[in-house]
Design a protein that fits this description.
4-stranded antiparallel sheet, single chain, mainly beta, 26 strands, about 0% helix, about 325 residues
């Protein structure tokens, strides 16, 4: 399933973004905005200087949408701050915490025109640098990317079912070829559990049907292991997941049970040490949605959620904060 193979008739107005550049990026044109525009399919990461948001889309092609290449930083004390941009470019994106750099494997620009470029963003310098393409894998769209801090590698689980490791320092990819692994899927949720040194993969879509399986990947032994918790969240694709170091659990919110199904608005936590999923059931929270993003905020020890929606043609621009200790969502 392509991220744009959607059938609906409603239209969302285009966001006019700045044109792409071949240099080191340009300052954002979003002067005066207090928060990012509504979007889905964007990316969010934990950094030492706040939660970083990059890219996404305003709506799919049928909705007259366009891609976004803007960067924002969220901090509780200052809210959202716009940073420099590479224009209307987006693709699978990861954050290398050891070098404090984000890498964007761009595969589309503007109104979804094919483009193959690699860009690296330094949030401290607020600067972009274009990198050579190298031998990056095909079919990056729909895959999941997570950073293994112990091994200093970005781990990709592709929509084709392949496992790859990427070294940002050397710009090199390695096809891992583990003996077993999850079945091919797209738009699942994946993040790294530093306590156990494992990449956790949950859900995703197979033939437009959400899945509910949970897998753990060990880079050092190049092995996937399917976990068998007694209880699991309902099947879904397009969820968002982030590791919470205060409770040592993965937190998952939302998603879609099927491509045309009703969006979910539930909050779950997964504890790898005990192989348990628990529905958290906070008193209130964000509205049901998919294609959103979340990331852990070091400064406040909370999880930040932005955007997505229950309709891919009507994304939201709201920000929510989840307190994992108090089990509560608050709208920012």
């Amino acid at each position: 399933m392509s991220r744009h193979s959607l059938a609906a008739l409603s239209v969302v107005l285009m966001l006019v973004a700045c044109e792409g550049t071949s240099g080191a990026g340009t300052k954002s044109t979003q002067v005066g905005l207090k928060s990012p525009h509504a979007r889905g399919y964007h990316h969010m990461f934990t950094t030492d200087h706040g939660v970083l948001l990059y890219g996404g889309e305003t709506a799919p092609p049928r909705g007259g949408g366009n891609l976004l290449g803007d960067v924002w930083i969220y901090r509780k004390t200052t809210g959202w701050t716009a940073r420099s941009t590479i224009g209307q470019k987006d693709g699978l994106t990861g954050y290398d915490a050891r070098s404090a750099r984000m890498v964007a494997f761009v595969d589309e620009e503007g109104q979804f025109k094919t483009l193959n470029e690699n860009w690296v963003y330094d949030p401290v310098a607020d600067s972009w640098q274009q990198r050579p393409l190298g031998s990056r894998p095909d079919e990056l769209a729909g895959g999941e990317l997570a950073y293994d801090s112990e091994s200093d590698r970005l781990i990709l689980f592709s929509r084709l079912g392949d496992t790859w490791a990427y070294d940002l320092d050397t710009d090199t990819w390695k096809l891992m070829n583990p003996t077993t692994g999850p079945s091919a899927r797209d738009w699942g949720a994946m993040d790294y559990d530093p306590k156990s040194d494992r990449i956790i993969l949950f859900g995703g879509g197979i033939s437009d049907q959400g899945q509910s399986d949970t897998w753990a990947y060990d880079y050092n032994h190049n092995s996937w292991h399917e976990l068998k918790p007694a209880t699991s969240p309902p099947a879904r694709m397009y969820p968002a997941m982030a590791f919470d170091p205060t409770t040592n659990r993965m937190v998952v919110f939302g998603g879609l049970p099927t491509w045309s199904g009703q969006a979910l608005g539930d909050t779950w936590a997964f504890d790898l040490t005990h192989d348990t999923w628990v529905e958290l059931s906070p008193a209130k929270g964000p509205s049901a949605r998919a294609r959103h993003a979340i990331a852990y905020d070091i400064e406040t020890r909370s999880i930040v959620l932005f955007g997505g929606g229950d309709d891919a043609f009507a994304f939201k621009s709201d920000t929510w904060i989840y307190d994992p200790v108090g089990n509560s969502w608050t709208k920012a």
